[in-house]
Amino acid sequence: MELTQNKVVSYNGLPTNKHDTKYKIEQHAKLSGVHRIKTHALRHSHASLLISLGENALIVRDRLGHEDIETTLGTYRHLYPNANRIVANKLSNDITVETSEKAKRTLISNQFIKR
């Protein structure tokens, strides 16, 4: 199913009954012997999974049907704690620094002296 204009539609594009999702979750939870999750909690789990898989916040916003990215980030910002570190690591892996003997200097006080 996908979320389109705040309506849940089936795979064939026809709108579903608003109780279908709840019924399907209850049915499958009973069959599998697990605790039933509420529809809204399933929505949060879906968003959390996308974020943990490294999906872009704009994609998460679109999947959830939020009009504003701030709504998505305001709700799920805590799931992006290492985003800056991940970007820094990517940049570190892509940049190679090479130094020559000519560029090496010794620090004496506040001045560099060539060797």
Instruction: Return residue spans where pLDDT drops below 50 for at least 5 consecutive residues.
Output: 1-5
In what range is the share of β-strand residues? 5-15%
N-to-C order of helices and strands: EEHHHHHEE
Largest sheet: 2 strands, antiparallel
Shape: elongated
Instruction: Give me the secondary-structure category.
Output: alpha+beta
How far the N terminus sits from the C terminus, by CA atoms, comes to 68 Å
Query: What strand line-up does the widest sheet have?
Result: 1-2
Mean pLDDT comes to 79
General description of the model:
The chain is an alpha+beta fold and 115 residues long. Helices cover 48% and strands 12% of the residues. It has five helices and four strands. The strands form two sheets. It has a two-stranded antiparallel sheet. Strands 3-4 form a two-stranded antiparallel sheet. Strand 1 (2-4) and strand 2 form a beta hairpin. Helix 2 (39-52) runs antiparallel to helix 3 (57-64) and helix 3 crosses helix 4. The longest helix has 14 residues, at 39-52. The radius of gyration is 25 Å and the shape is elongated. Residues 1-5 have low confidence and may be disordered.
